[in-house]
UniProtKB/TrEMBL annotation:
It comes from the Eukaryota. Residues 1-139 form the Laminin G domain. One of its GO terms (cellular component) is cortical cytoskeleton. The keyword Transmembrane helix applies. This is Laminin G domain-containing protein. InterPro entries: ConA-like_dom_sf (IPR013320), Glycophorin-C (IPR042192), Laminin_G (IPR001791), Neurexin-like (IPR003585). Keywords: Membrane, Transmembrane, Transmembrane helix. The chain crosses the membrane at residues 182-203. It is found in: Membrane. Its main location: membrane. It is a single-pass membrane protein. It comes from Chiloscyllium punctatum (Brownbanded bambooshark). Pfam families: Laminin_G_2.
Length: 251
């Protein structure tokens, strides 16, 4: 079994107990696990039923192929960080084996084996081998202050088949997205309504004043015989006749 954290932050679980040519693969690419935040992965298998839980999301069941062996009784070595064994290694594991995992590992446990705790003990067992720098750290996380989950709601407690998950982030995020979408939709509707009202007002204004213009015609032009008479009737001080104004003088 191999747990691979890829460069893009996705996680891949490879399971091969024998009986199949290719390992059974589970790809978790819907979240970025290389974002600098702590993440937890819990894998449990009973026969050919595999359950995988990522962070506080509900556990997801998987079924191994019918031809898969279910006995895991030939455990030889447990590698953390990278595989340093020489020999036939899975090509996908070899692809991410250089430089290997870079980061912080915490609370690693395989059945009843806790390799990190064993390596940090003053009298470390000779079965534990450390290569490179190995420093004790809390991985930048605060100490756990939350009380343990009751057995009735713990999905990993055997015998709690009807366990309910107290928190589901997926539904919470979906509700938040729906509320935000409703607010944004309301704002857009108000903006569109305002623009339509403005356009209606402008169109009515343009049609109301269409063809309206101002002229400098003399008052009484409609009742006068001609334009010259209208000018003379409108301005009593106008003594020059139109005929005289049209005379041309030559010198």
């Amino acid at each position: 079994m191999a747990v691979i954290l890829k460069h893009n932050g996705s996680l891949q679980i490879r399971y091969n107990l024998g009986g199949t040519k290719e390992p059974f693969r589970i790809d978790l690419n819907h979240r970025n696990l290389a974002n600098g935040q702590p993440h937890s992965v819990n894998i449990s298998r009973h026969g050919k039923e595999l359950h995988l839980q990522l962070d506080h999301y509900p556990a997801v069941p998987y079924s191994l192929p019918p031809s898969t062996d279910i006995k895991f009784n030939s455990l030889k070595t447990l590698f953390l960080g990278r595989v340093v064994e020489i020999g036939n290694i899975d090509q996908e594991v070899q692809k991410y084996n250089t430089p290997g995992f870079v980061g912080c590992l915490s609370r690693v446990q395989f059945n009843d084996i806790a390799p990190l705790k064993a390596a940090l003990r003053p009298s470390a067992s000779s079965l534990v081998s450390v290569q490179g720098e190995f420093v004790e750290s809390n991985c930048g996380a605060s100490p756990l202050t939350i009380s343990p989950m009751p057995a009735a709601t713990d999905p990993w407690h055997f015998g709690s088949a009807s366990a309910e998950f107290p928190y589901n982030e997926e539904s919470t995020i979906a509700d938040g997205v729906n509320r935000n979408s409703a607010i944004i939709g309301g704002i857009i509707a108000v903006v569109i309504f305002t623009i339509l009202c403005t356009l209606v007002f402008l169109i009515r204004y343009m049609f109301r004043h269409k063809g309206t213009y101002h002229t400098n015609e003399a008052k009484g032009a409609d009742s006068a015989e001609n334009a010259d008479a209208a000018i003379m009737n409108n301005d009593p001080n106008f003594t020059e006749t139109i005929d005289e104004s049209k005379k041309e003088w030559f010198i």
